[in-house]
Amino acid sequence: MVDDIASVKVAVRVRPLLDREKDKRECIHVFVNKNQLLLGKDQSFSFDHVFDGVATQAAVFEEAVKPLVESFKGGYNATVFAYGQTGSGKTYTVEGGSEGIISRAADDIFAFVSTENYDEYTSFEVRVSYLEIYLDEVKDLLNKAAETLNIREDEKGHIVVQGLKEIKVESVEDLRNLMRYGMAVRTTGATLMNEHSSRSHAVLTFYLDKKSSRSARNLEVISSKFHFVDLAGSERANRTGNVGERFKESVHINSGLLALGNVIHALSDPKRRTGHVPYRESKITRLLKDSLGGNSRTLMITCVSPSMDSFEETFNSLKYAKRARMIKNRPIVNKDIIELEMKRMESEILYLREQLKTREKSSSEVSSEAYSDDSTRELTSELNTYKALVAESIKEIKYCIEKKSLNKLSKYEKQEKKKHLFCRHFGMINKR
User: Fold this and answer.
1) 0.85 cut: is pTM over it?
2) Stretch (H or E) spanning 45
3) How many CB atoms sit inside 10 A of residue 361's CB?
4) Alpha carbon distance 259, 261 (integer Å)
5) pLDDT digits over 123-132, tens only?
């Protein structure tokens, strides 16, 4: 059930002028208190959050990101993705060491897990995965030996990356070690606009599972995920000086961002909201399918340069950001209500047993009266038939209950487990 309809939130962060830009005029005027900015002389924009060049990492996290962390802890999916031209401060904002929003979110999440008032019946598990999309190929940054990964939809329509490694983490330090490892593997390179330019889109994901169980038949599982997406920056070859392999990278980067722009345009256009959304145009848009128009609370952080040299790129980024605010998501609490389903099935078993007792009682009363042998045999036959039907129904219901435990198994394990359950409940095991 959809809890509410939530618009994509948008924050704009204007970085300070770089040393090489000190002699350039600024093209942006920021009005922080009003969450507005003026581009050039007459292009005015309003957003959910606006941060100027002196805003701290802590301010960005507390004001814009922390509400999503709270939702994540409550069972909602969440996404933060940083968008903007190359060299605009995206990676610094998302991954900036112990100061970036990922580390700050991790501090908050592990503080919650360690201090949450839970008893022996409740447990938490935090896992993390880290991938990059380089030259339109998905690679696992936490498993260098892994081959190129494939993106697909599971039976419930959820987007999954086959073979992506999810590692259990028990502390912030565990997470930071994994981040350092992944960042060292991620593809980067120098351009004229950025000495350490990200040449790939990167997605780091937290997974939080909360399990509450009073008994084997009273289980509730709440599972949520939080994507932190650092998009590679849009590039113009005449400014970055890219040639050869760098130019090839630029083509793939810009293609992915163009596909993202098409998705944002389709979702934000009132005339097209019920029409086709081109998620399949690129790997990054497929991964962000739930984040844009789906089951997620989402924040887009648009990073821009204040330099007049970047006026056109900044204007395009702000246009995309303005459109993104019009996207409607449908977040839900990701509760696997095994408990309620089991109770419903168990109630059905009790009902069938009560019906059986009633039939047996009626049969006993009838047989004690002066009825012919033929009538008695007919009632006995009917009762035995009903007993068989009830027994078969109870087996089937128990079989369905046990199938609920298959959600976390691999496709092969599910098939084998289902065969075993089916054979066990319906007496089809061949004894050796």
Assistant:
1) no
2) strand 43-46
3) 10
4) 5
5) 899 999 999 9
